[in-house]
Amino acid sequence: MTPVVSKLLLLAFGLLWFPGFATAASPGAPPVFGTPAQKSLSQASASARQLISIKVTGSKRYAEKDIAAASGLQLGTPVTDDDFKKAAVRLGDLGVFSDIGYKYSYSAEGTKLEFQVTDVEKFVPVHFEDFVWFSEEEMLNRIRQAVPLFNGEVPLSGKMPREISDVLQTMLVERSIPGQVEYFRSGPSNGAPESILYNVENVLIQIRNVEFTGAAPEELPALKEAARRVFDREYSRNVLTALVEHQLLPIYHARGYLKAAFGAPEPKVVKPPSAETAGEVKNLTIVDVYFAVTPGRQYKLKALEWAGNQAFPTEVLQKMVRSQPGQPANTVRLADNLRDIQKLYGSKGYVTASIKVDADFDDPASTVMLHLTVNEGAVYKMGELEFRGLDNSLESKLRNAWKIRPGEVFDSTYLSEYLPQARRLLPSELDWDVASHVTANVRDKTVDVDLIYTAKAVLR
């Protein structure tokens, strides 16, 4: 279709496209392209300027009615060309769309508007680190009321993260909490942000106690003992998440409750923040934390099934696993046993060997079959051995003491044997620290060992 024909068709619908027609939004917001009517709305009759429909196309994330509401336009009200520009800019400032366009037409019945939008690709969840005075549901409801198009995730640009911060700050002020809301992008240091984390500054929140609901009496003592490590510590969702993952869940996994689950931590304020008094910390909040526990079914081990092992027969590996069929499936002990098996493989040069565990549950029988798949990888040989921080004489002594020669099969367990022996060859009047770096070279299947020594005088 030629440009002339396209223009004629648009004219038939009362529309005319002006390429490059755009209005500026806030910095970082997407450009907004509008298709104005052939004749300005300001020159149309009063009835023609009544907004009678808003249509939205292009978004896969948001409902049409929600985008229309976020535009700020209302059906049945008189509108102008400038109203459409402002509405499009308002949507762009949220940061949820990478492109925004609009077009409209009018007749004696009124004006019809259509937005064309494209969702941004990257959204991340929001996490509330230490807002112990509110439930998560309470915070989410307040944010949804105040922040258009918020659904638990936010784009990394635009106004939305800051508007959420403003809502949370208002909630603190309403409760007379003397804190300041801060937020930042959270994720690996060498990777893209994975979430936006909100926290409260200028208030110290301390954990007094941890309680568990839904736990059986048999597990409560172990749970209580494991939880003691966070008593008197500063409240943090990250700290409590780590407590669940590394301390509390293993209590159940060691007893065969392989599907045990803990609810989100629920803090209860037992002392709100107050002004500084004798013997107290200013703005100190003390909380008790409650965890809802769902132990689930206790599974007994049906059998272990091995696959992929060639260097060592199944009988050898099986003897290293202290799990008996018919007993509760202790996956904590199994993990320890598998680490020992990896060391065995490493002692024979299989330094990249790994073991994958898949569980096949039989709920009616309350049993589990564990499939252990070994990926042995290649045999690695000794590569380069480097010493740093030593003079030539000491380096010669320590190099001669190293038993694995270049080209020989590398034993990944040897370093723990070598380092105490090497320390005895060093001058005893100095205090020696050693940092070891072991690098497996995938291309030539060799292992390089780099030992960095640091000496300091012994204080007598």
Q: What are the defining features of this structure?
A:
disordered N terminus, elongated, alpha/beta, 31% strand, 27% helix, Ubiquitin-like (UB roll), 5 domains, four-stranded mixed β-sheet, 460 residues, 11 helices, five-stranded mixed β-sheet
Question: What does this protein look like?
Answer:
With 460 residues, the chain is α/β, with parallel strands linked by helices. The relative contact order is 0.07. The N terminus is likely disordered. The chain is elongated. The longest helix is centred in the middle third of the chain and has 17 residues. The strands form five sheets. The protein has a five-stranded mixed sheet, covered by helices on one side.
Offer a quick outline of the entry.
With 460 residues, the protein is α/β, with parallel strands linked by helices. 27% of the residues lie in helices and 31% in strands.
Helix content: 25-40%
Biggest β-sheet: count, sense, barrel? 5 strands, mixed
CA-CA gap between termini: 92 Å
Question: How much of the sequence is in beta strands?
Answer: 25-35%
State the fourth-level CATH superfamily of the largest domain: membrane protein fhac
